[in-house]
Amino acid sequence: MLINTINKIFLFILFFLLIANNAYSEIIKKIEIRGNNRIPDETIKMLTNVKVNDDISQNDINNLIKNLYETNFFENIQIKFSKNILIITTKENPIISNIKIKGIKAKRIKEDINKVLTLREKSSFNEVVIFKEKEKVSNLLKNQGYISSEINILKENLDDNKINLIFDINLGEKAKIKKISFIGKKIFKDQKLKNVIVSEEYKFWKFLSGKKYLNETLIDFDKQLLKNFYLNKGYYNVSINSSFAKQINTDEFELIFNIEANEKVIFRNLNLELPSDYNSENFSEINDLFEKLKGENYSINKIKDILDKIDQIVLEEQFETIKASVEENLVDNKLDLKFVILETEKLLVEKINIFGNNITEEIVIRNQLLVDEGDPYNEILKTKSINNLKSLNFFKNVNSEIIDGSSEDLKIINIFVDEKPTGEVMAGAGFGTTGSSIFLGVKENNFLGKGISLDSNLNISSESINGLFSIENRNYKNTDKSLFLTVDASETDRLKNSGYKFNRTGFDVGTRFEYYDDFYLKLGSSNYYERIETDNTASARQQAQEGDYLDLFLNISATYDKRNQKFQTSDGFLSSYSVDLPYISETYSLINKYKYKYFTELYENNVSSFSLSLRSAHSLKNEDIKLSERLRVPSSLLRGFEFGKVGPKDGDDYIGGNYMVAVNFSSTLPQVLENSQNTDFLIFVDAANLWGVDYNSSLDDNEIRSSVGIALDWFSPVGPMNFSLAQPLTKSDNDVTESFRFNLGTTF
Question: What is the pTM assigned to this prediction?
């Protein structure tokens, strides 16, 4: 009985409130706008979303006030409704006449600040928004290394309710990364981990690098790079718990990463689950990969390789609507993986929208997409397209979203890019026992937003000087093929050791493209004019080669690249073959080159490599090849011997040979010295031979040169230094040995 009474009372109150609310509702007979100077009455009336003869309640009035404040036009709004007259009294926000940035001289920083500001000249000023603007500027400056900057925002009142907005900024000193340290269960040496991340320690010669200053965004990126590094080294459970900056001096900090790498994990059982109507024989390669991986260390890249292989097979078999996923099960540091392929709903791409490309032309971006409007939607191709865009290195970030189209079977792909500067200025210097060198270069990777690469550099050494300019259109005629042109001029002086020098001027033109996954082709033509000079001590056959030459070659090269990464490779291999075919020449020299290099980890924290290099040069007319085309063994392939002072000799001159072979093995050593975080030790074995003299077989040399030694890479305070100590094992009587070699240099 009591409950029924309470319910009746509640219903009565609710009914009364409804009646009361409706009772308040009245008809608007007139709308008056007061206090506005800049915004017309009609505009304000439109923004209120009410008009004469509308019923209005207190709830409507509340919404009206809310709508007007959301326009950001008004500082204050008062509403009065009396005698069917709606009176709206406003106080307009001031208009920003000008935005001034004080305390900063650098034009680039000012431009960066203007880009992040939402407020613009001629827009309304809002006290609430200004705090957000201040936060944006502060975050921008922190990401540029100014972590202690002070920002004051001032208003300068003008006539007609206008203001000047002044950002008074004291940048302070940039926060330099004096030292980078790694703590916790890190496993690897500090220097190894420094090579993984982007942030770097402050050095005076890195004056053009912004990576030596504290940058929160960059540090977050570094944490992800570190995690990926450990995930590819077998550490399935790894965490980068924290990263923090410890202040050393006023503007110097120590960047510290806390790493916890648990025990290594190995692959145990790997399986592939297919839809019932799929032919398992099409995926036999996958099962072969599974067998090879069993018992190996966990690697996220190896999982990615399997997924890429699945994608490749799926595309070859023209399965248009599939999705691949991975199920993981970890037991006692042994990982079971199940790769599942599922059929998905058949969908079509209605439209592809691209946002954020203010510089890069849209066609450059679309050329990287493997899916087009009207095609069946394929998640694999969409993902590969995004990866293609990332590999251009034009953008800070590339993201995508899939939204519904105009019907159930249509999808719209939205792609968002965040452009970054694509220009580079490079300089370098080095010196050592083999001579000194200077390098200067300027490069632009996205000229005029067309995806065109421009590169110019000058390289000066003790033996030669070389200048080069190149241009490459990586989207030639809106295809996935690149067209390149390189113009260079050089002078090489070998009078002292070989009795000749030559000047060469010419150009290369051609195309390069990915013919198949990781398989690249290059087709081109080398065309150059050359002048050879000899001294009076050179042999008669050498002196006979004095003169001018015009040579045109057809260049063909094929490269199969399965390295896990281009720099600091630790796994995989590279195989490359090239041939230069003469079609206009005096000597018609045919030049062949083959290179193979294999990388692996023999044990923890080790990188071992094996390489094979083969080269040949001979005349198709059975004549002498030019002195400038004769082969020599590069110093990097035969340590323990002076460059150019091995192989056939004519009198006192080292003349090079027609054939060269080199075999190399190297392996890094465990950390030898305590606290030697900036050093890497390695052992090496080199073997090479250079032989063949067209004009005189008696000058031939069939001796195999070999050496063994130890090398030290030291990242010193003044730049990277390399030391090698080699002991020749076999040599010829004519060879000049060089047991010790060092080089110092850097690029900044």
Answer: 0.60
